Amino acid sequence: MAFESLSDKLQDVFRRLRGKGRLTEADINEAMKEVRRALLEADVNFKVVRQFIKNVNEKALGQDVLNGLNPGQMVIKIVKDEMEELMGSSVTEISLRPGSEITVIMMCGLQGAGKTTTAAKLAGQFKAKGQRPLLVACDVYRPAAISQLETNGSRQNVPVFSMGENHSPVNIVKAALEHARANGQNVVILDTAGRLHIDDDMMQELIHIKEQVMVDHTILVVDAMTGQDAVNVAQNFQEQIGVSGVILTKLDGDTRGGAALSIRSVTGCPILYIGMGEKLNDLEQFYPDRMASRILGMGDVLTLIDKAQNAVDEEKARELEQKIRKAEFSYDDFLDQLQQVRKMGGMKDILSMLPGVGSQMKDISIDDNAIDRVEAIIHSMTRQERANPDLINPSRKKRIADGAGVPIAEVNRLCRQFEQSRKMMKQMSGMMGGKRGARIGKFKFPF
C-alpha cells in the first residue's frame, strides 16, 4: 500500500510528541529530523522536503505551540496543513465546455504508466456524471494499443473512434472531432502514443496535435512506482508541451509515494486523479486533505463514503430494507451484500480508511479471495436452499462443499456467519417495530 512505510514512521514520531506534556525547541527539532528522514526515504524531492521542514519549523516553534495545552496535537495539525498545501490545498476539477460544445482532453505519458487504461477509466468517470465521452485511439505505433482501448471502452460502455495504424495521429484526431459532432459526444479523450523514455519524436507529435487542434486539457499519466523519476518526467512534459494536470497510477502498489508529495510543488501541475488498482473503476479523484489524513494515519472516511455510494445499488438496498422489516434474509441477500463490499475494493483497503485502524492493519493478513470462496459456496446451493437456509442439513452441506471445491469446514463457517447476520437482521426488525417511515442505514456490511 502506498505511503505505508512513510505513514508508520510519521505516526511513530507523533506518538512520541503526544506523550510529552510540554514541548521544547529541542523536542521539535528532533521530531523534524525524523520527519525529514522519513520524507526523503519516501522519495520526496529533497528541495520540497527542505522547504516543508522550514515551514513546519517556523510555525511549530511559535509560543502558541510551545506553551499550548496540547502542543503535540498542534504540531501534528501544522504538519497536516503543510502537507495539504504541498499537494494543492483543494481538489482540482477538469472543467468542461458549456452545453454541447466539445471538450478535448489529450492524454500523454511514457509507455508502461497505464495511459490507455487510465483514458478508459477517465471516460467512465465522465459517463457516470452524465457526460457523453468518446475515446480516440491515436497510438498507431504500439502493438495492440488500439484493441486494448476498444476492449476497455466496451467494458465502460464508451464508444471508441479508430482509423487503424495507417493514418497520422493528427488526421485521426480531426476525423474523431467530426465524428463527435455528428454523434452528440461532448468529451473527446485522445489516447496518444508513449515511449519508453522522453524523446523528440514523441514530444513533436504531441506539439503537432496541439497546433492543429484546440486541446482544452493536456493530462499527463505518470507511474507513482517510479518515485522521484515520476517528478522528473512531469517536469519534462510541463516544460516541453505544457500540462494542465497529472494522474498518478499504481498508487496502490508497493511504492514510496513521494511523487504525490512532490509533483505539485516542483511542476505547478495539480494532481487530478489517482489510480488505486487495475480495475476500470479504480480511479479516485485526488483530494489533498484526504490524502494527508491517510498518510498521517487519520483515516479517510469521506472517500469510504464515496466508495459506498458508488457501490450500493439503491433499489436492492430498499428491497433488503423491506426484507428486514419482515425478518426475511436469504443467502441471495447475503451474496448481494458481499458483492457490494467487493465493489468498494479489498477489505484491507476499506478498513485502512477508518481512523485509527490503518496502523493496526499492517501486520494483519486479510484474504480477499475468501469472498470468491463464499460466492462459490452460495452458487453451489440450489435455488430453494438459498431462499430457505433452514433446508441445509449435514448431507446437503457435503454436496455444497464438493460442488464449490472447498472443505466442509468452510461451508460450516459460512453457515454460522450467515446465521449471525440473520439474527442481527431479526433484531433490527424488532427495533424498527414496523413503524412507517422508519429508516435504517443505507450501507450494511455482512461481517
Features:
disordered C terminus; eight-stranded mixed β-sheet; 20 helices; 434 Repressor (Amino-terminal Domain); alpha/beta; 3 domains
How much helicity do the residues have?
A: 40-55%
Low-confidence stretches: 434-447
| Shape descriptor | flat
Q: Find the CATH superfamily of the largest domain.
A: P-loop containing nucleotide triphosphate hydrolases
- The CATH class of the largest domain is Alpha Beta
Taking all residues together, what is the mean pLDDT? Answer: 81
Elements, N to C (H/E): HHHHHEHEHEHEHEHEHEEHHHHHHHHH
Strand content: 5-15%
Strand elements, count:
8
Q: N- to C-terminal separation?
A: 23 Å
When the domains are counted, the total is 3
Number of helices: 20
Spatial order of the strands forming the largest sheet: 3-2-4-1-5-6-7-8
**CATH topology (level 3) name of the largest domain:** Rossmann fold
What does this 3D model show about the protein?
By secondary structure, this protein is α/β, with parallel strands linked by helices. It folds into three domains: 4-87, SRP54, nucleotide-binding domain (Four Helix Bundle (Hemerythrin (Met), subunit A), Up-down Bundle); 103-298, 3-Layer(aba) Sandwich (Rossmann fold); 305-432, Signal recognition particle, SRP54 subunit, M-domain (434 Repressor (Amino-terminal Domain), Orthogonal Bundle), CATH 1.10.260. The chain contains 20 helices and eight strands. It has helices spanning 4-18, 25-41, 46-60, 63-66, 71-87, 115-128, 145-155, 169-183, 200-212, 228-240, 258-267, 288-295, 301-311, 314-325, 331-343, 347-352, 370-379, 383-387, 394-404, 408-432; strands at residues 103-108, 133-137, 160-161, 187-191, 217-223, 245-249, 271-275, 283-285. The protein has an eight-stranded mixed β-sheet with strand order 3-2-4-1-5-6-7-8, sandwiched between helices. Helix 15 runs antiparallel to helix 17 and helix 17 (370-379) packs across helix 19. It is flat and about 70 Å long.
